[in-house]
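Handout, page 2. Input:
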Amino acid sequence: MLVLIGVFAIELGLMVAIAKISPDSVRKKWARAVLTSLSIAVLIIPFGFRAFSVGTDTLNYKSVFDKISASQTIPKSLRYIEIFYSVFNYAIGHIWHNYTFFLVILGTVLFSLLFFTVNKLSIKPYISMVAFIGLGMYAQSMNAMRQYLALAFVLLAIFELLKRNRWFWFLLFIVVAFFFHKSAAICVILLPIKYLKLNYKTLIAFAVAAIVGVFLFPYAIKLFDLIFKSTYYNSYGGVTTNFFTLNNILFTVAMIACLVAILVLRNRVKSKTPQRLNDYDFFAMMFIIFVILKMISLFTIELADRLGLYFIISLIFILPLVLETFNKKEKIILTCVSIAGLALFMTYLLAIYGAYGVLPYKFI
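Output:
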């Protein structure tokens, strides 16, 4: 646990230092580059040099890597795995058949893309990165590695759509994400959301979607399986049997409360920082989709919960937008409270749940 808490603390210090250095000279640009590299390295080292017992799926992924690395072509028994992830395994495995080396390269790609997109999409990157770690996403990335690679390209797609208004590049990066993890196909829904206004009519439409989704989502997944032959995901496609638990119910209620707060705070963003309202609305609607998927997972199938990963990431961008609406003194206090809250939440995840099998954490 101390390793992951240390990552949180060191990452916070480095990101704050980067924020304090304005790139108005060559020397300062070099300083920012060095600190950015160190910030990425802080995430890569525990991710890449971990024991293979860290992460509930690590040994399964190692088995895939070993089989692909030992073959001249991708084995037929592994053709169910998305082609880009298989090729990634093949390329790295034939350079050096060493799983630690593979994890280091994967972590470098993942966290470099994450840093790039966070710096482009967030008005306070250090808060967003701390939120990424504090909300348990860093720990989860040691387990759901394929999906997090897909998520990195989804964030690139969001950057192209939201900041450059280039829908072609948005779709291209969604396709890339799809070939790392087929579940990323759901993120196509973000294209029309870009052009929606967050108002009462939109909220009513989302409420109807939530009700209809509970009944139709299992059939949508069956259709997806039929089209893309994604038999690997059948294990997540059955009716929920053990997901309707007290912990999941309480978490869903907490997320609904969080959503209400986000909607209430929208008026503050609109009045204090109107130039950021479009970004706020986009990420707020992403979070609405997450809550809908979370509700669906309680009543129908577990896969809806896995799909929610692509949308809960919106929280790391919403938090800085909210904090920006307060005056300097209030902002400092609320930022400190937020960081402390994130640290406590991460500690709770680690202590109570082991955070996706990353505890006990051991270096290789």
